[in-house]
Write a structure and sequence with these properties.
With about 260 residues, the protein is of the alpha/beta class. It is built from eleven helices and seven strands. It has a single domain, classed as Alpha/Beta hydrolase fold, catalytic domain (Rossmann fold). α2 packs across α3, α4 packs antiparallel against α5 and α5 crosses α7.
């Protein structure tokens, strides 16, 4: 398993989200986080290794455990975004001793009443990939989810981001999306998580992620809740300074 290891200090595990191997690098590079050891994991099937099917959120979480154990880290702050927020939840529920704090940045809408609509979008993309190949499915995904502003912000820190995603597209469609659709997490699972929790949401993400926020806060009534104005679901790329400030404040309060 490959990973980036930046800086020194209290360790933070940034779990790689879907598709973009280094999508969390702009956030991890923010000056507000410079006093931390930032570990940016590359999940299975990425950095050109090709998909490992069937995928599994539980397997992704087990890989996080293996990485932390290999680094001899007893407990870390964990950050998950979108796809990887599902992995972060799984990790915190099943290996709670390794998770000092848990930050969830807009987890997948599978945990809401929009479950079926979200599944339909994923199935459509998977079908497109099966019929026309990962490049066609990737183009459709980009058309639906990205903006010029998002690309500009990402490519400032990750100049080869498009090449990374093109290279790893099959992993996203053949490994990650089926893994996500096979994931089940409930309020009962959330009861296993006792560490401090931060939810970070974006004001312009729309009803799916608005209900995600409601669900997360119902699971964790004591959670810290941060809302980033003017941002959408791409907030870790377009508004990294605001997200980093929220993380730094949260970690400081948790340690006091």
């Amino acid at each position: 398993m490959s990973f980036l290891d930046l800086g020194t200090g209290d360790a933070v595990l940034f779990i790689q989200t879907g598709l973009g191997a280094d999508e969390l690098l702009p956030l991890a590079s923010e000056p507000a986080l410079a006093g931390r050891r930032r570990i940016l994991q590359h999940r299975r099937g990425y950095t050109g290794r090709g998909p490992e099917v069937p995928g599994s959120i539980a397997r992704d979480a087990a890989d996080c455990v293996a990485l932390l154990e290999s680094l001899h880290l007893p407990a870390v702050d964990v950050v998950g975004y979108s796809y990887s927020a599902a992995v972060a939840l799984e990790l915190a529920a099943h290996a709670p001793g390794l998770v000092r704090t848990l930050t969830l940045v807009e987890p997948p809408p599978l945990i809401t009443s929009h479950h079926d609509d979200f599944v339909a979008v994923c199935v459509d993309l998977m079908s497109l990939c099966a019929e026309h190949g990962p490049d066609a499915a990737l183009d459709a995904f980009w058309d639906r989810t990205t903006t010029p502003e998002w690309w500009s912000a990402l490519e400032h820190q990750v100049p080869d981001a498009r090449l990374q995603m093109r290279r790893d597209a099959a992993t996203f469609f053949d490994q990650d999306l089926p893994a996500l659709l096979g994931w089940d997490f409930t309020a009962e699972d959330a009861l296993r998580i006792g560490c401090p929790v931060l939810h970070v949401g974006a004001a312009e993400s729309g009803p799916w992620w608005a209900e995600v926020r409601t669900t997360v806060l119902s699971w964790f009534p004591a959670a810290t809740d941060v809302f980033v104005p003017g941002a959408d679901h791409g907030l870790v790329v377009t508004h990294p300074a605001q997200v980093a400030a929220a993380l730094a404040t949260f970690w400081g309060a948790a340690a006091s």
